[in-house]
Amino acid sequence: MISESRDGSESLRRGGFIFFRLSPSALRLRRCGSGKLSGNGAEDVVLSDEGIVERVRNGEVEAFGTLVGRWENRIYRLALRLLEHPEDAREVTQETFLAAFRKLHQFRGRARFSSWLYRIALNCCYDRLRERRVEPVPLEEADGIAVEEKVLGQIHKKQVAERVRRALHALPVEMRQVIILKEYEGLTFEEIAEILDIPVSTAKTRLYAGLDHLRKRLEWLKDAF
Q1: Which of 41, 54, 88, 93 could form a disulfide with 83 if both were Cys (CB 3.0 to 4.6 A apart)?
Q2: pLDDT per position as a tens digit, 85-106
Q3: Residues 23, 120 within the same domain
Q4: By C-alpha distance, which of 66, 172, 67 is closest to 116?
Q5: pLDDT tens across 141-167, in order?
Q6: 156 in the same domain as 57
Q7: Rg for the chain, CA atoms, rounded
C-alpha cells in the first residue's frame, strides 16, 4: 500500500518492495486530490487526468501521486463492493495503481483515463475472484434469513442493507458490475460501455436484467415496513 516515510515522502509498496516514491511536494498534491499544480506564485492550474499522464510520461514520475489521490477511494470502493472483503479490496487497489503505472505507456487516449483505470481495476478484481473460485450464492441461500410477520416492522436498516448486499452478490458478475458502476458509482451508460468494452445497449440490458433479479429477490421488502 501507499505509506509515508520519516522524511515525509510516500512509497507505493508491494511485498516490501518500493516501486516509486512520492516526494513531500507530490504528497501535498496527492492529498489535495484536485490535480492543481502551481509554482513560483503562479495561479493554480487544474490538470486533467490525461494531462497528468503526459507529465508522468515526460519524466515527472511523482505526478502519478496526484492520480492516486484522485482515484484511490473510488477504486477501493469499487473493489470492496465486488469482493466484499476489505483486505482484498485494499490489495486490489494497490495492484490496480501498480498495473496502471507500469502500463502507462500503453494508454493511447482513445478512452478516458478513468475508463482505462476502471478496466484495470475490474480485471484485478476478476483475478482475485478466480483465485478464490467464488461461486454465485444460490437464490435460496441469498434469501435464507427467515423474517416472521410479527417482527417485520422492527427490521433495522442494517439488516435490510445486508439483504440487499447479499442479493447483489448473488447476481452473475456481468450484471453486478454494471449495477455497481451505474447505481453506486454514478457512471453513465456510455462510460460503462467504454470501461467494459461493450455496446451501450448491452450495458443497459445487463442493468435492467440485474435490477429485475434484485426486485424479485427483495420482493419481501414491500411488506417489511
Answers
A1: 88
A2: 899 999 999 999 999 999 999 9
A3: yes
A4: 67
A5: 334 444 444 344 444 566 667 777 888
A6: no
A7: 21
